[in-house]
Amino acid sequence: MTYRELLKEGERRLKEAAFSEAELDAFLLFEEAFHMSRPVFFLRQNEVADEREAKCYEEMIIKRLSHIPVSQILHKAWFMKYEFFVNEHVLSPRQDTEILVEEALHHLQDYDRVLDMCTGSGCIAISLYAMGKEMKKDFFVTACDLSEDALMVAKKNNEDIAGGKVRLFQGDLFSALPIKEDKKPMIFDMIVSNPPYIKSSLIADLMPEVKDHEPLMALDGCEDGLLFYRRIASEGKLHLRAGGFLIVEIGYDQGISVPEIFKAEGYEDIRVIRDFSGLDRVVCAKRG
Description:
With 288 residues, the protein is an alpha/beta fold. It is 39% helix and 18% strand.
């Protein structure tokens, strides 16, 4: 078969299976299997494809038809212009989360100590460090996660993108942070987080790509989806300097409940920021 025939066949099978982005998914897998950019494809589309590469493409299409996310098939995802390694142990970075990073960068102009809680792939923490370097600023970035498997992914991304400069710790939220010799808590200018925020009862209703192929630990926000916001807001006050910022990603329906939690904990100047679809996505607050 020619390259064009193979690509069209992949598109057809994904469309028949009702994948919403069938053409894009088919081409991303095609591009990886044949190491061929779109301009090169247009030049070579009528050539007969290499059999081994065609077999690789077929295997990728089969995986996608079983609802494995494209990012996990390719083991990579783009976030804030950086290529991150991903697998089944971490959430694949989402474009909407870039709003959190942009908001954090806005407030980091005069500060440099950042803590990323529930780091997963490390996309937030590592992007902040890397973009700081591009701005000729040395951010001191620390990231924590409960999952050892997730931290292995973050470690690889840290080495590949940030030269290993982001400090990584394993543990349950702030208990992951090392104890200083003087027993005083580590203090940061900013705490950022994209914590688990899906209500436990709603996880079964998520898309198969999410509920079947992404880690439950990174999704389940317990009964009302707000457990981690309560803990981060409360425990975070011990690690956030006065006037420091707490910035978190939220679910589309948490634009009232999360600010209420922050207000009850004494945070000030609370703002809700919307995503590219006009939905509530990020909450930014200042410690009083």
